[in-house]
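Schema walk-through. Below, the input block comes first and the output block second. Nothing else is stored per chain. Lengths vary across the set, and this one has 553 residues.
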Amino acid sequence: MSKIIVSLKQVVYHHGGTSVLTGVDWELQAGQKIGLVGPNGAGKSTLLRLIVGELQPETGELTRSRRLRLGYLAQEPHLLLEHTVWEEVLGADARIRRLQSRLRRLEVQMGDLAIIDDPQAFDRVLKAHARAQADFEAADGYRYESRVAQALQTVGFDEHAWGLSVATLSGGERKMAGLAKLLVTQPDLLLLDEPDNHLDLAGKSRLEVFIRDYAGSIVIVSHDRYLLDEVVTRIAAVERGRLMCYPGNYSAYSTARQLKLLRQQQQYTAQQKEITRIEAAIARFQHWAHLVVDERHIRQARARQKMLERMDKIEKPQLERTKMGLVLNGWRGSQDVLRITGLNKVFNDEYGESIILLGLELLIRHGERVGLLGANGVGKSVLYRCILGQEPLSDGVIKIGPSVRVGYYAQHHETLDPARTLIEEIWDARSMSEAAAVNVLLRFLFPYERARECVATLSGGERSRLQLAKLMLSDANFLLLDEPTNNLDLDSREILEQALDDFEGTVFVISHDRYFLNRTVDRIVELEEGALTPYVGDYTYYAEQKGLALNNL
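--- output ---
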């Protein structure tokens, strides 16, 4: 059995009066690669923050092995925006920084004339410098900058990007900078909270390699089923405040969980029948004892009551979690939904012209499910804005069919107004009574008391669900979806996939979620260097066609 590095026993934690964890037992062993899953709000991030020490259990026991070195990547990495990428990653190892500062301080003293003229003082400084050098060498300090450079290259930062300000980085690039800092320090246990969010396909491939090759233990929170299938060997699922562990990857967990719930349902049903039989016997003996004073009937009733009290009660399984009620109806409309001819898009700035889209040609017909792929920053969202008329064309023509109504899901929730209430956002999509609007919000898992709160108070997952609610009410038959699975938990992703499968309309979707792409698209177009390359198939077909170029990222 491997060494236990973290142990949680009956850990309880509440947040704002709400019970989050109600008695978690968990042992993390050295070398494990664990996927931590569960619905939004189940307590996954809370668990990571408890392990790292940012939060303390209210009751229960949490222990870490002595000298355990922890590394934690939060959903929003804590980076200094004024730093360059190089400066931020260089500052990852606090011990190296302290040793460097000590060496510089001693070197300054060695050049101080007052110390040079005092043989005893100079001798003390020389010996201190020799000790500091030895400590620095033992910490591999002389190779530290090369380790920083290697970490940056491993996560995908080319040398020309090292001088970029952290403030200019995208969300995915900030995740990678945070990951590079962890790679430099090489902790025994890495806690990664949705590190794949906002990463493009190349970034996700690098993340997979990083996790597979990492020598230490890793706990990763992710909603990317493809990633979890590729890199983890164990799943820890947070369900109703408790934690259940399953061997294998996500697919193995999904099957095992369903079988376990079905077995539990059978056992629960059988036990309930037995309880009903015993309770009926108790009532019968009590009735006889009442009619005829007979100590034997009273003893039999008491014996069966004790039998009930000693029985280990089987909890009623929750076979179906409460899920959002997304239904996308759509309608047929025009046969040619979108036609793009000779599309050019050029941006002019202080550095000159930047060609984003060059001679784009694309035809999407009714009923097609088309995935738009490409690295972050190549212009996918720009193309969407051009289709929506939000961005003027430099040249070319975009034609949308006359019987086509477009529905748009924005990656950064730009279709929502932070100052509006949730009810006002529903009214923005369709005119209805207040009661009807509240019912829509209830379908999308918003409690009644939150209906009059502002959008600004919502989490990323809640904003995603609100956008999907508006999309459902839009009566659109052509959906432009920009990273729709970002921030959605696994249950909500599956509901979205089913809704798109049933949708009577056309879908054009930007996504880096490979599992989602395999479930939803039948054609892929890749945007690269301003042009589109078609692939007639799902993500797996696309990956096979890309071959070694994709696998060796």
